[in-house]
Amino acid sequence: MNKFRRLLGNQGMVVLSKPGFTWSKLSALLSNTTLGSFGISTSTNIQCLSATDQKKTQLTPYNPISELQPFVAVPIIPEGTASFNPAESEIKFASKFFTPKDESYKIKHIKTAAEIDKLPKYDIPEVAFIGRSNVGKSSLIHTLFSKAPITVLRKLSVSSKPGRTKALQLYQAGGAFTLVDMPGYGHNMPSYFVNCVETYFQKRTKLVRSFILIDAVMGITETDLIGLQMMEEMVIPYVLVLTKIDKVNRHQLVRNLMSVMNYRDEHSRFCLPQPFLVSAHSGAGIELLQTFIAYVTGNMLVTGS
Ligand SMILES: Nc1nc2c(ncn2[C@@H]2O[C@H](COP(=O)(O)OP(=O)(O)OP(=O)(O)O)[C@@H](O)[C@H]2O)c(=O)[nH]1
Q: What is the spatial distance between Cα 14 and Cα 159, in angstroms, rounded to a whole number?
C-alpha cells in the first residue's frame, strides 16, 4: 500500500517518527550537498547562534516571531540552530522577484495539471505549498504575488469553501523559480489526490523546498499529520508556515505555535527548525517568506544582519 494512502486510511493511528532529532545529528548524517538542499548553508551566510549570541541578536522586525518571543519562556527558534534573519537590504533585494518591473522576472501562471506527466520540465528550482483544505494556500500565494498581473491572480481561487484547489497550479517568477499550489488534503479532497501529490514528490527533481501550511487559529490537527507524515516518510525537507495569524490573539497564537513546535521537536527529522508566521490579510511575515523563497531557490546569498 502506498505510504500516503496508508496515512489517509489510518488517520487515528498515525505512527510517528522517532523522537530525539537534533540539527547536529542531522548534520552528522547528511553530506554538505544534502544540507544545501535544506537551504542551510555551511558558509556564514546564515547565522548559527550560540545562546549568548541569540540574546544579543534581535530578529528582524520583518519576522512576527520577534514580537512573540518576549512572551515565550523558551526560544521559539531553538538555541544553537540556524536562523534565517536577513538584513533589510536583502529583503528589499528579494522583493524584485515578486515585484516584476521587467520581462525577466515576469510572474506567469504556466500550468494547471492533475497528472504529473503533464507538468512541464525545466531547469528552474521549484517550491511547493501544501496543507489541509482551507488552510489559506491560495490566499498566501496571492499575497506573495500581489504585484503580479491580474490575469495571474485570477487563477488563484480563494474561497471560504474548503477544497476549491483541485489540481496543481504552477506559477513562475521569470527564470528565478516556480511555485506550486497543491490541492488541499482532508475535506472535499479530489479522488486523484493521493496519486497526484505523492507522485509529484517522488518525481519532481527540481523541488528544493516544500512549505507545509498550518492554520494558526486551529494549531496542529490530525488532518495536518497527513502532510507532515508524508514529508517525513518520503524524506522531503520542509518548512512550517503558520497562516492567518491576524485571526488569533497573542495568547492563542503562542499556544498553537508551541503545539506545532512540540510536534517538530518530538517527531520531525526533516523540518527546518525555524517556523514562519504569516497573514495573507495583514501582510505580516510576507516579506520574510519571500526572501526565504528567493534564498532557497538559489537566487540570492543572505549575509545576515
Ligand atoms: N483572516 C484571514 N483569513 C484568511 C487568511 N488566509 C486565508 N484566509 C481565508 O481562509 C479561507 C480559505 O482560504 P484559501 O486561500 O482559499 O485556502 P486554500 O488552502 O487555498 O483552500 P483549498 O482550495 O481548500 O485548498 C478564505 O475564506 C480566506 O479568505 C489570512 O491570512 N487571514
A: 30
Q: Convert 166-178 to b/e letters by CB count within 10 Å (16 or more is b).
A: bbbbbbbbbebbb
Atom of ligand 1 nearest to the CA of 133: 24
Per-residue pLDDT of 9-34, as tens digits, reads 333 222 223 333 333 333 333 222 23
Domain CATH code at residue 172:
3.40.50.300
Task: Say if 93 falls within a structural domain.
Answer: yes
* Residue 279 host element (H or E): none
Q: How far is CA 10 from CA 6, 213, 223, 225, 268, in A?
A: 6, 21, 11, 11, 19
Domain count, the chain: 1
Q: Please say whether the beta carbons of 279 and 243 come within 8 A.
A: yes
> For the whole model, what pTM was predicted?
0.80
Ligand 1 site residues, Cβ closer than 6 angstroms: 131, 133-139, 158-160, 162-165, 184, 243-244, 246-247, 279-281
